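We modelled each protein-ligand pair independently. The example shown here corresponds to the magnesium ion entry; the chain sequence is given first, followed by the ligand as SMILES.
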Amino acid sequence: MRRLKVIFAGESEVGKTSVAAAISAAGLASGGPTIGADFFVSGPDGVRAVIFDLAGQDRFAPLAPLLSRGARIVVLIFDVSRPETLLAIPDWAERVLSGTEDAKVILVGNKLDAGLRVTPEDIASVAAAVGAHRVILTSASTGFGLNELRKELLEA
Ligand SMILES: Nc1nc2c(ncn2[C@@H]2O[C@H](COP(=O)(O)OP(=O)(O)OP(=O)(O)O)[C@@H](O)[C@H]2O)c(=O)[nH]1
Ligand SMILES: [Mg+2]
């Protein structure tokens, strides 16, 4: 069994828990803000991605470096309808990447169904700043982009 530690991080309410639940087929809707962290498991036989879904609220940010230790994949999530959540991504990258070595970074723009209010140039510039290997746009509501993300999580 190959186990991959995956971190989901980003501002509160961008949809981290919703995306994690959807790709892990846990069948759970988000039950409000995450306290500390939630955990999800995803993957076919032989591969197991263990998702550490961090809380986005400021008061939990100090937990991020500790919980991220040893992660192979870091998924930084923002809400494409709220530009301030994209601007906060470099801070999340700094918190989370401090405890990892050579982690693969994926930048995810969620809530595509809610309307795009960030430019492709802004996304590209943040992706470059955090060393993202890929950018994936998703909607936890419609399912758009979730297969692509699931595939990335199983290829560390
Ligand atoms: N329209 C739309 N709403 C979404 C989407 N993903 C999540 N939401 C909604 O956004 C709200 C916040 O979702 P969560 O998954 O709890 O967000 P979170 O990032 O885990 O928040 P914290 O745990 O506080 O960090 C919920 O009401 C979700 O139903 C999406 O793709 N589109
Ligand atoms: Mg959450």
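The chain has six helices and six strands.
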